[in-house]
Amino acid sequence: MSKVNKVVLAYSGGLDTSAIIPWLKENYDDCEVVAFAADVGQGDEELIGLEEKAIATGASECHIIDLKEKIVSDVIFPTVKTGAVYEGEYLLGTSMARPIIAQAQVEIARMVGADALSHGCTGKGNDQVRFESAFAALAPDLSVIAPWREWDMSSREELLAYLAERDIQTSASATKIYSRDANVWHISHEGGEIEDPWHAPFDDIWTMTKSPMQAPDEPATVMLSFDKGNLIAVDGKSLSPYQALVALNEIGSEHGIGRTDIVENRLVGMKSRGCYETPGGTILMKAYKALECLVLDKSALKFREQVGLEFSHLIYDGRWFTALCDSLLAAADSFAQLVTGDVVIQLYKGNANVIQRRSPNSLYSEDFATFGEDDVYDQSHAEGFIRLFSLSSRIKALKDQGQTK
Question: Is 179 considered catalytic here?
Answer without folding.
Answer: yes
